[in-house]
Amino acid sequence: MNKKQIILFGSALISLACAFLWFVNWNAEGLFPKDQSTVTMRDIEDHPEKNFTGYPAGEDIASLKSAADFTQINGERDYRTAEPIGIISTDVYSLKPWVKHYRTKTYKGRTTTGSRKAEVIRSAFTMGIDYNRYYLLELSDHSYILAQLSEIEASAISNGVSIKLPIGQKVGLSEQARSYLAPICKQYGVEMNGVFYTFDNQWQKEHHLSVLVVRLVVSVVVWLVLSIGMVLLGNALFLKKEAQ
């Protein structure tokens, strides 16, 4: 293998690794703004049949100030918001509620059901396609609660940005998730009596394919641009020196 081939192969391989990291870590949801108005308690009272989880919280939506506040939440429609002062990422994820639990394959017009997706996983990589990460959310009294929120909001909080989370509700915690999260919850004194869930499942389901396609397209562009740039740089650094 000559130097030109090494430069070409090495550039493609390194660029592919960078594009993969971009794909798994970049969240494209911000490119799809939510057409949702701020929700008040009056809206919730007037529309008891509607699920407002994930909607922008109005000024009269009670805000969680402590882990004790979260413990007092009772029932699905006992909505809250939060203005966290810190966040800790875990390596534990749960399958998004609306994602199909079984992998399917279609061949010659016939669809077959494959293996069942794990309900809870542990991973060092971001698994935001089919799974939601668990976080430890630090509230104003420096106590922590378990929460699931978008990667965009989590990133903003970790960078010190003061934000108000969408309307959330308290959801249960599976035994497997509980066992995976037990060590970090013990370390930070977190009671595993539920999870503060802030996703609008309907919006997530409707935009899943669009977000995935955008992530794939942008990742391919990143791969191409990096590959071309690295090939040109490699040629300039190594091949021109040989020609001189």
Give a short overview.
The chain is α+β, with helices and mostly antiparallel strands and 244 residues long. The protein has helices at 3-25, 41-46, 67-71, 151-158, 175-188, 201-243; strands at residues 63-64, 81-82, 86-95, 102-107, 110-116, 120-122, 131-138, 144-148, 169-171, 195-197. The chain has 2 domains: 1-34 and 203-244; 38-199, no CATH class.
Describe the structure.
There is one protein chain. The protein has 244 residues and is of the alpha+beta class. The chain has 6 helices and 10 strands, in the order H-H-E-H-E-E-E-E-E-E-E-H-E-H-E-H. The protein has helices spanning 3-25, 41-46, 67-71, 151-158, 175-188, 201-243, and strands at residues 63-64, 81-82, 86-95, 102-107, 110-116, 120-122, 131-138, 144-148, 169-171, 195-197. A hairpin with a 5-residue loop joins strand 7 and strand 8 (144-148). Helix 1 (3-25) packs antiparallel against helix 6. The mean pLDDT is 87. Keywords: Membrane, Transmembrane, Transmembrane helix. The chain crosses the membrane at residues 6-24, 212-238.
